[in-house]
Design brief:
- Keywords: Metal-binding.
- By secondary structure, the protein is α/β, with parallel strands linked by helices.
- About 20% of the residues lie in helices and about 40% in strands.
- Strands 1-4-3-2 form a four-stranded mixed beta sheet, with helices on one face. A four-stranded mixed beta sheet has the order 5-8-7-6, covered by helices on one side.
- Strand 6 and strand 7 form a beta hairpin.
- About 20% of the residues are buried.
Length: about 140
């Protein structure tokens, strides 16, 4: 089987500059580069934090994110890509930091199978953060 590694996740937003600022201020992603994708009519940015990247699209004439895509239990009821997830060492510490930064915390899970949370970026896109137990790593 061909080998591959993760490269980036992508989100569409109504305001590229606001999203670049949000991903930097809240999650520590720095602007790597900006470019325009003619075929999509998209002002685009790649932001990076270590090996992790997000591609952010501001597409001319794009529709806003539907309300049911903003809440994890509703979002999974529609086929398609859902979110990206990142590992955190301590969920409670992460949540405290996100609250301090004014992040929109959408959903918190603390179950026998694991714990994590979803936050919404400045456009309402869901991002998951998971605290793994020792037997998951």
């Amino acid at each position: 089987m061909a080998e591959f590694t993760f490269h980036h996740g992508g989100v569409s937003v109504p305001d590229l500059d606001a999203a670049i600022d949000w991903y930097d201020r809240v999650l520590g992603f720095a602007l790597e580069r900006r470019f325009y994708i003619e075929a999509a009519r998209s002002h685009t940015a790649m932001v990076r934090k270590g090996p992790l990247r997000f591609e952010i699209f501001e597409v001319e004439g794009a529709a806003p994110l539907p309300d049911d895509r903003r809440h994890p239990p509703c979002d999974v009821k529609t086929h398609g890509n859902k979110h990206v997830a990142f590992r955190v060492a301590d969920l409670d510490e992460f949540l405290a930091e996100m609250e301090q930064k004014g992040a929109d915390i959408a959903f918190v899970v603390r179950e026998a199978f694991g714990k994590g949370c979803f936050i919404r970026d400045c456009a309402g896109n869901l991002i998951e953060f998971v605290e793994e137990t020792d037997d998951e790593a």
